[in-house]
Amino acid sequence: MERLKLYLEHISRKAGYAEELYGVRIRYVPLVIEERTIVFDRQNQKIKVLEEGRYLSPEEIERFEEKILENIKKGVVELYLTLTFGEDVGLGES
After folding, report:
1. Domain ranges within the chain, ordered by starting residue
2. How does residue 20 score in pLDDT terms, banded at 50, 70 and 90?
């Protein structure tokens, strides 16, 4: 869990930079998008199931930890952020 916490802090800093750059507040950072969307809630530093509106238990976090770390290390989480900005901010549109 400590290793995951360090990575989440790093991702939160990147999202903070994107907020400054684009002027758009980012509360949720997508971590896993599969059958359920798992996000990092930057406001209270917790991991949440977006569709259900509930936070993961410590046991659930342990189950998802490797997938979350894999997505962060491979750049998938940054890709999710980029796609979100492409949709919400309209990056790349003329």
Report:
1. 2-87
2. confident
